Every structure is written in C-alpha cells, then in structure tokens.
Amino acid sequence: MPDNLFETRQRINAAAQTRKITRTMELIASSRLQRGKQQLAAFAPMLHHLAYAASCLPHSYFSPLAEHCETKALFVFAGAKGLSGAYTPTLLRFCAEYARGAEILAVGSAAAQAYPNAHSCFGDDPPSPAFAQALLRAAQIRYEAGEFHEVWLIYTEGYTPVAKRLFPLPEPEGMRHTPPESVLLDPTPQAAYAALSAAYARALLYEAHLQAYTAEQVARVSTMDSATQNAEEIIEQLQAEYNRIRQASITQEIIMVSGAANALGED
C-alpha cells in the first residue's frame, strides 16, 4: 500500500477519534446544562421569597458603611479552562472595565489563570449552597472589616455578561415593605436581620453561580457541536481523498499488469 494511502487512513482514524471525543463532551455538557436549568428553576421561588423578606431590612444594609475604604472586590465567574469557545474571553473583556484597581476573587480555573494575582481563587466546583457559603465567607469577612466598600458579581447570564452588586446588598426592586408591629423577631431584631441578610447574600451568590454555570454549558455544547461537525467534514474530505488515491493505485496496478501481459504476448 503506498505511503500516502496509509497516511490518509491514519488521518481519517485520528479525525474519527476526535469526533468521538467531541461528541462525548457535547453529551456531557448537555447533561450538565439540563441539570443547571433544573436547579435554576427550582431555586427561583426561594430567591423570590428571600428577596421579599430582605426588603424589610433596615436601609443601612443597602448602604456602604462610612468607615469602608474606596476599594472594590469582584467575584469573577469565568468557568473552567478551555473548550467553551468565546465564553471566557467575552466575560474577561467585559470584566476589564470593572477590574481596574479592584481586588479579584476568581471562581473557576479560567479566572484563576487570567488573574494570577487574585486575592482568592476557587476551583471548578459545580454550584451548591455549600460552595456559595464558602464564597460568601471569603468576601463578607473582609467587607465587614472595612477592606472593601463594595463587592460585585461578574458572570454571564444567558449570552450576556452582567455585573451585579453583592455588598452592600442590592435593594429588592418593587418589594419595599415594613413588617407589621405584631411580628416578633427572636432572639432580637439585630440577630434576625443579620441572619436574613446573610441568607439573602448567599442566595444571590448561588443564583449568580448557577447562571454562570448554565451559560458555560450552553457555550460548551455549541463549541463541541461545531467541533463535531468540523471533524465530520474533515472525515468526508479525507475519505474522498483516500478513495481517489486507492482508485489511482488500482488503475496503476492494472496498467502494470496489462503492460506485462502485452510484453509476454509479444515474446
């Protein structure tokens, strides 16, 4: 078998293996995407009720503390490295405007790679209330110590990067109300307000991570689908090339046999 025929077959096998890998990764991302959507849908009512409850917090919870310095902190949800197309670069370009002079809390290996000097780096853990609590603890301690005057969330919602404030808490829109005087807060209003504000902040973090995770899987499904289609096109082109070379080889053999037969006949 001629060398170029063997090499073409090797390239076809390599492209087929690549197609198998990208198709598998597409299926994995699709499964994660469906799980992310289900978590978002299940969490939406709880977030709504927490926002309604948080709307009765004193106004001080929605205003920066006077003793805070003028330094921002950014949670950057950039996802895992690679295989998600323009998802991470688009988010990082959007984040550049907010990152000037800000402390970075990187969530995901892509953010950790983009910001090697980030104050805190977190891994590629899937969204969970426990992980949201760990993120909250990292920011809240320093915010309450006066090291930050604002903490923001930078993530992708759908196909669009967004920036939302975490501290001071964003006041729920259209929900402002005062609890009736008959409501008893136990053990004290201060303790109840502190617990409620922490729960609301954790919910905002969890929702942001869910949105970012879902958007990342959408980008990964699209990227892997494109990669699978490209591999299929390459296989088709290589198969056509393989058939052409093989046909040429067979034709050449027929010519050689015919020539040898003619030579023997003349003898």
Write up this protein.
The protein is an alpha/beta fold and 267 residues long. It has helices at 3-54, 87-99, 109-114, 129-144, 189-266; strands spanning 72-77, 103-107, 120-122, 150-157, 160-167. It has a 5-stranded mixed β-sheet, with helices on both faces. Helix 1 runs antiparallel to helix 5 and helix 4 crosses helix 5 (189-266).
Jot down its keywords.
alpha/beta, five-stranded mixed β-sheet, 62% helix, elongated
Give me the count of strands. Answer: 5
* Poorly predicted segments: none
Structural class designation: alpha/beta
Task: Describe the strand arrangement of the main beta sheet, using strand numbers.
Answer: 3-2-1-4-5
Rg from C-alpha positions? 29 Å
What is the makeup of the main sheet? Answer: 5 strands, mixed
Global outline: elongated
Head-to-tail CA distance between termini: 31 Å
Strand composition percent: 5-15%
Please give the oligomerization state of what you see: single chain
Overall mean pLDDT: 84
What's the SSE pattern? HEHEHEHEEH
Number of helical segments with 4 or more residues = 5
